[in-house]
Specification:
The protein is mainly alpha-helical. The protein has one domain. The protein has 3 helices and no strands. The longest helix is centred in the N-terminal third of the chain and has 13 residues, at 10-22.
């Protein structure tokens, strides 16, 4: 996993997921590059937070 967002409310998460799914691949890649330019595996970080 190279990108994730955390939300307090499930409705907000679902809305954001739909927004991301509607976008094109280039926009998704740009989002990842902006927030995780080295494409580091974030799974271990997520496990430690929750």
């Amino acid at each position: 996993m190279v990108y994730y967002e955390a939300f307090q409310y499930i409705g907000d998460a679902i809305g954001r997921e739909k927004q991301l799914k509607a976008g094109n691949r280039a926009k998704k890649i740009e989002l990842i590059k902006r927030l995780n330019p080295n494409w580091i595996d974030l799974y271990p970080k997520i496990i430690d937070e929750f």
